[in-house]
Structures are given as structure tokens and as C-alpha cells.
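User: Can you predict the 3D structure for this chain?
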Amino acid sequence: MVRLKNRYLLVHILYPEHAENNTQDPLLKPAEGLPEVVQFHRPSPDDVSAQSLARIIREQISFLYGDYGAGVTFGRLVVKYFSPATSTAIVRCSRAHYRLVWAALSFITQLPKASRNGKPRACVLQVVRVSGTIKKAEEEAIRRARTAILKAQRSPINGIGNGLEAILGAPARGMGKDGKEENGENAMEGIEDKDEEDDDDDSGG
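Assistant: Here is the predicted structure, written as C-alpha cells:
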């Protein structure tokens, strides 16, 4: 029995441009004085989904690598998880060609028709972790979400308050500041996991 080896790419979608003034979604409206960490990590539009993201990735692979790239990647390429609230995705692909998928992600610069007025939205797709199991990718996504919250809390707005208060309207409670995982000091200690075991055949989903 052949064991299928996969890689799971944890991807952040960053939005370098300011949100549109005419958007109807309160989460996407621009807020004056918000720190850059909050502006870049804002939620994705409602019409961005796991299916549309997978389609964009496939189109980029075909554009860059033609029939060869499509043939070696499409069979195992799946967006296993996507959160519009945090603009975070987990992309599964074959271990043999994950760098090809990674390169295609890095060349994506906009989400077609992502905004409500039908215009493309500029974006950056940042691969922050490559794992052999989806569990490790999920754990890293949680850790980075906590780090982003703490960064927003520490970023002042006009000398008072913090970035998280500007979004939620109230201070966050229950977040510790003791240290290790949450302060982000080791956030870039390595993108690829070298020592973990590959997961078994992922045919179950």
C-alpha cells in the first residue's frame, strides 16, 4: 500500500492597502489611527471562501508552470481550512511539490472581485509555516492569532487605548502577558518543520 505524503502550508492573507470607504461591512471599514498590524490582518470579504482561494491558487500555478505544474499539484491540492475572520488558511499539497505551491502563493498579489464593488483587492499571501501534519499547522495558527492580539493591545491609538479596543469596543480580558509563546519572540524561528512525522494517508478528509 502506497503511503501518500502531504505538506500543510499555513497561509496568512495580508491587505496592504486601506479598506474601502464605501464598504457595507463594518469589519472592513477603515478606522482612523488603527495600528498597521491591525490594518494588515483585517478580515477577508464575505465572498472569499476556501473554494475561491483554491481556484486562485490553481490559476496561478497554471500561469507560472503550465500543464506540468497543474499535473503534479492539482491531485492533492486542497484548502483544508479558511477563516475569513482571521484571513488564515491551511493548504494541503503533496510533499514532493510543496515548494512549487509555495512559490505560486508568493506570486499572488490580488483577490479577483473580492471587494463588493467588483474591483480586485490587493493582497499578500504569506506562508508562515510548513508542516507534515494538519495538527501542527492548526497549533501554529492559534499561537500566531494570540500573538497578533497582543501586538494590537500594545499598539496605541492617538496616545490612548489600543488597536483591539478600536475593533471590539472594549478591552480584551483573560490574555496573559507572561511571555513565551504569546510575545512573538520566537515567531520566525523556522517556517518548515523538520523533525515531525508525516501523517498517514489523508483519504479520510
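Confidence is low (pLDDT under 50) at residues 158-188, 200-205. The first strand starts at residue 6 and ends at 14.
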